[in-house]
Amino acid sequence: MLDRLNQAMDRIEQNLDGTVDAADLARTAYTSEYHLRRMFSALAGMPLSEYIRRRRLTVAGAEVLSGDATLLEIAVRYGYGSGEAFARAFRAMHGVGPGEARRTGAALVSQPRLTFHLTLEGSRSMHYRVIDRPAFTVTGFKTRIPLVHSGPNRAIIDFVRGLDKPAVEHLGKLSDQEPRGVVAVCDDLDPSRAEGTELDYYHAVITSGLAPAPAPEGTTTLPVPPGTWAVFTTSGPAPEAVQELWRDVFTEWFPSNPYRTRPGPEILRTALSDDGTKADAELWLPVERESTR
After folding, report:
1. How far apart (Å, rounded) are the C-alpha atoms in residues 33 and 262?
2. What pTM, to 2 d.p., does this model score?
3. N or C: which end of the chain has fewer CB within 10 A?
């Protein structure tokens, strides 16, 4: 997988002054565009589109300083429809406009070319299982929240605290499928997984769709089709253990196993200690086997 990702990085470099097609990069990496975007974001710490933009502006910056082409020629070469659009993007990254940079020889910002390497540590093993599940239903209270990579997500905390406790207790009794009990479900995430992008969050239960009693008022349902799921477990400080588990799944497990993500909700079951400082967690991710070529 890492060799294929590096081949995709080569494709980006070859097309910085043309069209960089994410679907073509995915074919180079022998995976889906959906999985490529998620894998890249987890490994690189930035969305694929942001990396491409920064690499273009890095190379464009060198051409601005060289003075061999007009600023408009450089803008068009790197995909900007006007000198004004190029100047705005250039200033946003470099902190100075292209004209001023050329006149003064200002110091610019450089986005290094990324190359992925595998580091062998061997200090821990990941505990997981892969199972096939029939269709099920997510039933719960839903809101729209921003994605937070590290630390508490205040939007989730405030949303859950604002829910009616008897209604949540009643909801919990409707759980009749794994993972049992009230769970956190994230759906409709931006493929870039960029900090601050929004997603649908459900404080919910997993049911067969044949609940023995009506769901509480204000809940909504999310039908989930049959599919394969990878289930990961962890224990440790809250919320760091859960956030580190998600990171490790994408940076360690996926590159080492013949699976890729597929569209679908992510499900997290968390059991907190009495003081709320430690968590036992189970993370469910929709996956499919990588095709062999």
Report:
1. 10
2. 0.69
3. C
